[in-house]
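Progress against Task 2.4 (sequence-to-structure conversion) is shown through the following example record, which the project officer requested during the mid-term review.
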Amino acid sequence: MTTAAPATSGQREHRVDVRASWAGLTPRGGSFLSAGAVALACALLLRQVDLVRIALLLLALPLVLVVHMALISLHVTVRRDASPRRGSVGAPVTVTIALENRGGRRTPTLLMEDQVPDSLAVTARVVAPPLPAQATARVSYTVLPRHRGRFLLGPARVFVTEPFGMVERSWRAAGTDELIVRPAVVALDPLLRSTSRSGDSETAHAGVSSAGEVDMTVREYSQGDDLRRVHWPSTARRGALMVRRDERPQELRVLVVLDRRRVGHTGTGGGPGAVLESLEWAVSAAASVAATGAGTRHPVTLVGVDSAGQATDVDEALDRLALLEAGNETCLMTALGEVGSTQASAIVAILGDVGEHEVQALLIAGHEATRVAMCLRISTFAPAVGSEGAGGSWAPSRRRAADERHAASITALRTAGWSAVSVSAGDDLAQQWSLATMGT
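Structure tokens generated for the chain above:
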């Protein structure tokens, strides 16, 4: 989230604005004026002097308050700050508002209402106490993002009312701030294991630990070996000179292929801003793999995220996943074309509704790498007949066709040596990841 330059809430503070003050007359103030007018009319008809005095009092009080509010001069600036700086779906974000009185007089009690999107699930209205000159008050509200993306906070409106509650004035504080909401990240098991290691050829296929620590074995001394590598405990135990043979596992490089084709996903949300729920599941899975790789210090590269190319840094990857949009029909094939240019030891493909053409491209990708596919059964994400969704309602025949393609894809991938699992709507990501990597 970025913080905008200070925005002055009183844009007309240097002149008396009676029109704006009159427009801020509340129902209570209007009721006083109406009652005063009726009382004055009755007093004139009945010729009651005491009733005239009451009528004038009822009329004068709101009018005096209108003039009083027109004379109020505010020099209030609004700043925002969010914690954490990058939000994630389902995790609360606290937005702190700093209201600073830059004027020379004490302000009344202030009510600030920040404009926020509906998807942040909050009513951002906060009250600040009267501020002395040059003082700052900090108030906060909490948003709970329901969707990933870029959201604008603001502009804010600052409201001021007098003690009787008859007149209210408001100012629009120019300037907005940006909040980036990343996809939900799920804790996953450690990433896939590499099957090769550098070192002596005798143990080139001995396997490695997932954490990448150095394994040590010993062998008999050969002429020319460095005497500093002699392992004395083993020498004493075996009665022959033994030397250390240190081996380091080859660095595990994971390549994540994300299928973001619009035709490959569907969802049940209605309206023009409908969410492709299967795509959201896939994006969350890609983010979780990237975060897991960063936690275990294994480099993870994302392809198919957007037209900007590969994403290797985890923060860059999560930011780009936060803003990812559904792509055209060719974006998956474009992503698969980048697989050959990478030296990945493991490939993770997160797939929507793929056909024979896409499956054939997957089968020839990364023959020497460990290959895992999480195939979404998108018919389970699709809306039922009669409901509105991102892909329209699905008739039984359409569901059967999608399920047949799904089953054929998994069979072909498994036959070619991929570890492929079927994912349905509502499945737990961590559990499906464990199933997918169990045999690798």
